[in-house]
Amino acid sequence: MRRYVIAGNWKMNMTPAKAQALIAEMKPLVAGKDNCDVVLCVPAIDIPAAIEAAKGSNIKIGAENVHFKASGAYTGEISAEMLVEAGVEYVVIGHSERRQYFGETDQTVNLRTLAALNAGLKAIVCVGETLEQRELGYTETLLKFQTKMALTNVTAEQMKNVIIAYEPVWAIGTGVTATADQADEGNGYVRAAVAEMFGAEIAEQTIVQYGGSMNDKNAAELLSKENVDGGLIGGASLKSAAFSAIVDAAQ
Ligand code: PEP
User: Fold this and answer.
1) What is the CB < 6 Å shell around ligand 1?
2) Which atom of ligand 1 is nearest to the CA of 215?
């Protein structure tokens, strides 16, 4: 049985003070929801405040990116060791916004994934096709390619700490959600790629989330699908009622 993982991605929203206030609001709403792991991936500057605010609750804190080098002349970057020491447990890697605006490639996604896993972090690796790629009929090829590139040199043992988020680019922040069948199909392609690399057993155990305009209204239907093991949630993770309703839907 795979556990649901419901993870928020705050993107570039929330100051440390706002982060503390939002987590204080969320804590009682998600308490005792033992059927899923609850994660909030927050801006780097918010990490200490978020960890402090989440103490004594079932909310785990994640980062939104990690650099692939251990240390050195990489101004503005944050290493996996820094995140671990701060108390971070998860990290989002290869979000489509980073691929689109910050030159992230399949190769750097792979290097960041390895750095995160080697440091003991849980990696939430994002893959997804653009609308143009979908319309050209490349969804399966692309999802399998991105998944395999991201997981190159990852060991079977490390796969326990890998979560893959299928996030169709056309559904992120647009209000256009994939249908539950499209989400299930996309997640199925990702799982098939994991099976081709690591075998059926590991593929069955790997958590594959859906992300892209998931909200309190559509979560139950998306999460009811065989291959959908949770969600990576942007906009709706900034509101305590909507986010906790998604956690409820995962019960
Ligand atoms: C995301 O940022 O990963 C995301 C899915 O955003 P939204 O839920 O706002 O579409």
Assistant:
1) 9, 11, 95, 167, 172-173, 211-214, 232-236
2) 8
Look at ligand 1, atom 6, and give the residue with the nearest C-alpha. 234
Q: Which amino acid is at 149?
A: M
Q: pLDDT per residue over 7-65, tens digit each?
A: 999 999 999 999 999 999 999 999 999 889 999 999 999 999 999 999 999 999 999 99
d(CA 246, CA 251): 9
Residues 188-205 pLDDT 10s: 999 999 999 999 999 999
The Cα-based distances of 151 to 39, 78, 90, 134, 196 in angstroms read 22, 21, 16, 22, 12
**126 CA: nearest ligand 1 atom:** 3
3-state secondary structure of 131: helix
Tell me which residue has its CA closest to atom 1 in ligand 1: 234
| pLDDT of amino acid 214 | 97
Distance of CA 112 to the CA centre of its chain: 14
What lies within 8 Å, CB to CB, of 243 at 6+ separation is 6, 8, 26, 29, 30, 233, 236, 237
CB contact at 8 A, 36 and 250: yes
What does the pLDDT average to over 222-234?
98
Instruction: Confirm whether 67 is a catalytic residue.
Output: no
Cβ atoms 246, 209 nearer than 8 A: no
